[in-house]
Structure formats: C-alpha cells, structure tokens
Specification:
Length: 322
Amino acid sequence: VVEGFAKSKDYEVLLTVVSRAGVESDPVAVTIHPDIPPYELVRQTLDLNPDFSGVSATATNVLKKNIGVVMLYNDPNYGKYVIREQCFNNFESIAYSTRGLDTLPKQIGAYITDAFGNISDTLFETIEPLYEVALDRNKFFAYGLGSDKPTYPGPYTVTRIWNGVASFADVWHTDILSGAAAAYPYTLTFGIGVKAKLSRFHFWGRNDRATWAGESPRIFAIWGSAKDAPADISLPKGVLEGTVAGDWVNLGNYVVPNPPSGNSPSAPTDADRAVWNAGFDFNIPIAAPEVKFIRISIESTWGNNTYAAISEMQFFGDPRAK
C-alpha cells in the first residue's frame, strides 16, 4: 500500500524488486490515480461556527484516517494568523472548540493536515463568539430535596461535583439502592448562588473502571428553577426539554457519547480514555430560561447499576441576569 498522495491525479510510481544481497531489478513504471485523499475529504465537511466564548470546528472523517484540524486566529498581538488550537485523531465525527475569546468579531481560519504533511486550503470565517463566563463555584451550595437519592456513607456529598477534582475517588455517589428506591431517575440538587442564563457545562464521569461502565451516567437531564426556594417534586423521566414539573423546568436532555474510536464501551482505546478523562462539553439550549438552582436527573448509567456517581461538573453562562 502506498499512501500519502496529495491529490487525486495521475502519478508515476517505479516498482523494483530487491534481493537480500541488495541487487535491484530493472524498474517497472506504473501509472496510478489515487482517490481523493482523506484530508481533502475531511476539508469538504469542515465548518466553523460561533461558540460560547470561542469558536467550534466540526468535520466528518468517514475513512477514520489520522488527520489534524488546525485552527488559526488573526491575533492582533502578532499582526498575523497564528495557530490557536490543534486537534489530531482518527475519529469519524470531529468536534472541538477553542475558547477564552471575547464577543468582538474574530477572524478565524482552519485547515486539515495529515500524517504525510499534506495541508488543505484554509477555510476563513469572521466569527462573533457568544458571551459566557465560568460560574463561580464558590457560590454553589447543597440544596437537598426529599426525592433526591441518599448519598453513600462517607465523603460523597453533592459538593464533590464542584470542588475542582476529577478522579475516581473524589465523587458524588448515591447509596447502593434496592427495591422501589432503585428506580431511575436518580436526582441531586444544588444552588448556584446567582441568577444566570446557562450556556453550557463540562461533565466528567467517574474514571478508571467506571470509564464507559458501571455507575457513570449515560443518559441524564438538567433541570433548573428561578425560584428563591424551589419545592421538591419527583421529576419525570424521558420528557422533552421545556417540560415544567412544579417549580422546575427541563433545560436539556443529554447522552454521554460512545467511545469516539467506534469500539464498544467495554473496549475503549487509549485515545478513547484520554477523551473520557478530559470530560465532555454539552450546550444548554439558547431558549432555556435563567435559573438559580440546578437538578441533575440521571436516567441511566453505563452499567444500569442501582447506584450512580459523578466526578465533576462545571457550568458556564451569563450571570448578569437581573
């Protein structure tokens, strides 16, 4: 197999046979015409869009070849385009964001490269990032409700999910449940200390032996309330975003994606594990209302366990709400 051709066009390839003694045959000239190279196929699907505090790049790599997406930024500090972010993998669906930008228009570029040094033409866009900041987790506080699941004995309270530590041991963890108490959803509740319009959140599942397994949530919903002291209610499972239940509204429904390599959840690759350990970004729908309180409603875990655990969550949004 000869790979790495830059274009889909005629190439002359010389083939020789070499003996163990290093004696070469006369070359045989063969004309080949490769298909469109993978990096060019990915470039055809490349797209840049505004994201919260930054820009998102998306593309499709149907052949699952090793490629890189390189994002450029026309940086006024340098007076030229410089590399802002790079993403290299062989995943079929590529999606990543660069953040930390203000909301003024930004000149952004992106191109595709491969393992052979080929580089596509550059896609240029002017992007206006959406406003957001990381919510101050020092203002978060536990707000336990009667329908929330009890926690496992020990240091596994809800405060663990915003203490900045993503690990196997430092987690919120329900008690091991049985009977009617083991029925999903498993909920936990907390206040965020401000009234904010949420934009997205970053989610870390429990790692190590709970990577795409065990008690790590697979399907869950985020509910919110703008009340000063929202009342308890048993949240329904599997409802549409925007559904209202008592003082609570469903802000969004989420599924933790399968391993990006395409392997089964029981056989993640090292690259898959790196993705898991880095956590997952999820957007809150733009139509979601401002909230003061959040409820996480876990509707299934990867192992369909009778207990659940979350390592860490970080929320972003606009706390300038009146």
